[in-house]
Amino acid sequence: MTAVERKSLERAWGFDDVAIVPGAVTTNPDLVEPTFKLGDHSFRVPILASAMDAVVDPSFAAALTKAGGLAVLNLEGVQTRYEDTEGIYEEIAAANLDHSTEIIQHVYSQPIRDDLVGRRIEEIIELGGVAAVSATPQNTKRLAPVAKEAGASFFAVQSTVTTARHVSRSLRGLRLDELVEQIDPVPVLVGNTVDTGAALELMETGIHAILVGVGPGAACTSREVLGIGIPQVSATLDTAYARDLYHERTGRYVPIITDGGIRTGGDLSKSICAGADAVMIGSPFAATKEAPGRGYHWGMATPHAELPRGVRVHVGQPRTLDTLLYGPTSRTDGTENLVGALRTSMATCGAQSIAEFHAARMVIAPSIKTEGKIYQLAQQMPG
Amino acid sequence: MTAVERKSLERAWGFDDVAIVPGAVTTNPDLVEPTFKLGDHSFRVPILASAMDAVVDPSFAAALTKAGGLAVLNLEGVQTRYEDTEGIYEEIAAANLDHSTEIIQHVYSQPIRDDLVGRRIEEIIELGGVAAVSATPQNTKRLAPVAKEAGASFFAVQSTVTTARHVSRSLRGLRLDELVEQIDPVPVLVGNTVDTGAALELMETGIHAILVGVGPGAACTSREVLGIGIPQVSATLDTAYARDLYHERTGRYVPIITDGGIRTGGDLSKSICAGADAVMIGSPFAATKEAPGRGYHWGMATPHAELPRGVRVHVGQPRTLDTLLYGPTSRTDGTENLVGALRTSMATCGAQSIAEFHAARMVIAPSIKTEGKIYQLAQQMPG
Amino acid sequence: MTAVERKSLERAWGFDDVAIVPGAVTTNPDLVEPTFKLGDHSFRVPILASAMDAVVDPSFAAALTKAGGLAVLNLEGVQTRYEDTEGIYEEIAAANLDHSTEIIQHVYSQPIRDDLVGRRIEEIIELGGVAAVSATPQNTKRLAPVAKEAGASFFAVQSTVTTARHVSRSLRGLRLDELVEQIDPVPVLVGNTVDTGAALELMETGIHAILVGVGPGAACTSREVLGIGIPQVSATLDTAYARDLYHERTGRYVPIITDGGIRTGGDLSKSICAGADAVMIGSPFAATKEAPGRGYHWGMATPHAELPRGVRVHVGQPRTLDTLLYGPTSRTDGTENLVGALRTSMATCGAQSIAEFHAARMVIAPSIKTEGKIYQLAQQMPG
Amino acid sequence: MTAVERKSLERAWGFDDVAIVPGAVTTNPDLVEPTFKLGDHSFRVPILASAMDAVVDPSFAAALTKAGGLAVLNLEGVQTRYEDTEGIYEEIAAANLDHSTEIIQHVYSQPIRDDLVGRRIEEIIELGGVAAVSATPQNTKRLAPVAKEAGASFFAVQSTVTTARHVSRSLRGLRLDELVEQIDPVPVLVGNTVDTGAALELMETGIHAILVGVGPGAACTSREVLGIGIPQVSATLDTAYARDLYHERTGRYVPIITDGGIRTGGDLSKSICAGADAVMIGSPFAATKEAPGRGYHWGMATPHAELPRGVRVHVGQPRTLDTLLYGPTSRTDGTENLVGALRTSMATCGAQSIAEFHAARMVIAPSIKTEGKIYQLAQQMPG
Predict the structure, then answer these.
(1) Which of A156, B61, C131, D320 could tie A189 with a disulfide, CB 3.0–4.6 Å?
(2) Residue A306 lies in a domain
(3) Mutate to test the interface with D, among C254, C269, C332 (most CBs of D within 10 A)
């Protein structure tokens, strides 16, 4: 008997591939409570803002706290490299598209200052915000204690892919179980991951939430450059499955946060229906008047000195944070009143809580979207 | 043993994904009788006009009765909010595209008048039409008795999704079994739904027909805004299956009416072949000279004050109702002579009745259509 | 136990969905003999020309005989309605696109003349051609004896869909077994069909070949108008399966001719590899200098008075019949040297005869083509 | 019991259909060693340059040796037909697109000179390169001894499809087992093939590596002309399976080299992850400043006198060989720093060697790419 097998591939699905299907019960949108719990905090809406420089600065973080969500500040971006960030944002916004990647690479070549790490967290708190911050695994040992000291409520360890086991030439890499203990009681979010097994291993380290998604964001080109990526609906299904297995076995519930590629109320609703407890959103927030990016958006992998994986995208600033989340709106493309859309979607499926929405039916239905894309394309054509 | 399972998704199919396959018998088109029975009425053609303001006013309803079909009047639109509707239709047609949603939102902020509900039904009857009317579940208790009193022959309870069980803060929601009793013998149509289980529960309440389809219409963007929607062929297969199960168990036959997204004779034929007893059509009727919309069309969810889900679409008025249904035509894209197309399609499969056509073979064959779309797109390009 | 079942759909595939896969043996193209036998005739190449007016007139039929293939003359087109056809072809070619369907409808409203049926067959024979002719089932009883009398070598009964059992108001429809006997020894070709069961029933009547395919041709819009159609690869697989079952049971081999949608050497090779014994081609022949259509092409269903299903397509006349079939060519898009392409394709799979090529491997591989389409589309864009 | 069966088709997948999925372990890119062994040679990077005239001349071969890869010189192209090749490259580059195929057909009508075969190999060696050369099966008997005599380190037998069993009119075709013996110890590479069985038969002849892929390259139109082709991921999965079966049975490891269609770091990573030991790349190398093609690229089947299958493609010369392979880069589309991308991709999956990367997970995820294509297309549109 031989152990040799042809490598097999399963199918994976993204937002545009699926649709939510109403069932035999409906409810009123005003009975819906899409609350999200993380550690001891409870958030009115299950929406986090991405740890990206064009999305979150201290004042944006405070504004999103007031609006019911949670913003994560990038501790390795312009906020902690520059005392005065205004000129930096101006420079990036003013850059010619062809040179924008080079300019971003240059801006991020300045060192991170520990004093600025502390100061930004204090600014968020002074403005009335909940301070959540993010660092890469490489810088976590150095920055996590500084963040805890400064009063951060949440700490995220985040890179394209973060795992519980990282093989490194250095004697000791980051150990997540030690980090959890070290900054206790600050909850630790870790990501990104997309795999059932990897999510289970992360949960075993004691961390408090998992960020899900590799490669689907608007500012990310990991799939073209590295070949790596998995559509968000499948990534969410796989990691939510890990959460449920782990919860049943241990009794501890580790929330799943779908991160990347969410642009509309439909994408948001599909993420939650597929099993997410919350979502992390980048470009829609970058396109609010409260965002620091001046109408531009770029990814965390864009500044990579030798192999950038992301581009600067123009998103404009056509609306306020409040309109984005709560409307009212006259737009019919799903890009405004995201929370109203989620409530209506949940109510249509008879779900009053996120846990109930996890049980709603979803189907693979690619054709409608393809038609839509082609149609939109045709619309954009001149003449 | 664990009950935890990875959420699974089945595939769903739309009109463009499928094709009807001729078999071993053919017949003559003049032997085909595509009759549709609803309550005690029998209609020559299995086609209803959507309860949309750009499609049905009293004179259109009478015209469609003469043509062999059935029009449904929206009791919550401009007809029952305004005594003189001419100026309203003018205003909507004249609006700039960018502001059309806002203007429609404003127009529909006027209250519904009970006296106008009665008057419109009387107008249909005076013009020789069969009066079928529609209200949302919220207004059904109030409007259904008024409609019965005024002589309506059919009453439709219709919203994006309507279920037999609706959870509400108010003490008592609408109970469909009570409605059926209250307005007996007026047959009650209910929709929309897409699910086998939900359709079975609706049938149990005693209602007389089910409208099938969520999200696929030309004037609807539920899928982008809410993430909700299911392609029409699968919705029809699933609910027709419910009808057949219920029919076998109880002996009562509750017709299935596929509603939304039907633009051509091909779409119509596929709906019936997939199991529908009739179809409900919007935009093709809006594009007839008899329609009140002046060449524009908009959805029932467009006026939503905080989360509109639909746009005003320009459809023109290039043909008469008779040409749309019966031809003759020189067009080769399937948009005229819908009934001729259905007869030919049925005859090609050897089906003389709708019940026989339900047995014809259908396959999934997406590629041809994709090519067509791409081709059409190329055609639309300048140069 | 219930007999009620949800209607199920299988998938079907077209040319653009599949690819031929070379295996473990190759051979030299000059060892390949793609001979096609029909009745007592043997043709050097397995290619028939469609019974369409823009493709076949008597002189084209003679030219294709010389080139090794077989042309089928439409007995219900301009050739048998008009003594002098020159002016008719001119009129159709000169028509404005918007009115071309109407003009074609008008041209075909003239009656068919029996004397011209005979005369056209005689003209083919005088020019040295093999005379194959085609009529619809409605006119077969009248035209078949005339054709036999005039010396036709093959008679095709052809309409969109032709079956062995046709239900009609008239006392007796066409019986194919009687036709076979009546015009014996003239072989009878029948089509079109796409279904295993329907093909088996046709074979039982004693007919000599089956034309396969409904709806895929360049001049056909059956799928949009009627919803009817099946991609050619699946239609070929299904009917070839019927041929093999029937052959094994009875010892009689009834060739399968894939008809419609073939534009390139790749399409031709895929048809044969999927199980066809020969193909019938329309638009590529219409685009030769020998064709009567003056660079235009239209379908047999285009003239339908009330429900035309096809359009006049401009194809040009960029090449000779010989270049189309045998090259040499500098074109790299597969539209010239069709026979050279088939030989090379067969040789690459190690197949020296059509029967051997039926055993070659084929896979479903849609992606390449989609890319190609998108690419071609991009190419066609200005700028 | 009947042996007759409906022919069945499996699905096949290309680069754009799949994505690599990170798992539970990551590593540092600097721990990754993507070494490729072929015969007694070991190459730092698993990348070969295609035996195409626009890609490899003696100086390019030497440059790629220095860069850590291996270039293959085409022994049947301009290098061995012309003493002075400068003018030839100029002529092809200067040709009008419409006539470029004809001009290439003409250029390749000159005879191959044995003296030039020897001289080109000597030039590569003098410049410090490893000399690998390629001939078609037809010319192998004549050219292989000349190449060995001149000092070639590797000999490739390559045509669109090459098999162990070739049926020919001539008394004796090329026998690969005899070739291996004749030019021993020069390792023999053979291709192309795509099939598990065909790959196994080739391995049995004693050859040392297999080139995989039919039809997917940028300069190839085999799929349109012949209908032949198989997407590269499936071809790699199938032949890698053959390699593993053969290795387990015999203990001899015959590397698989995926050849054709690779344009980005993502494509390269997917090829290796799917099971390839190395890749062969054409157009990206043709687009380097070191390549002889002056910014143009054409395929080996383009010069075919009667049935050309390929076009001259403009690729430009925007970068150096070093930038292509190792960066650094500001581009974010995956077209530069291919080796950096492979290292990062492998590290993200925790793979330190190519053998470990073969075990990484891969999924079918077509939607992202389709969106990308549509998006790119929209971007390319004017206005």
Answers:
(1) A156
(2) yes
(3) C332
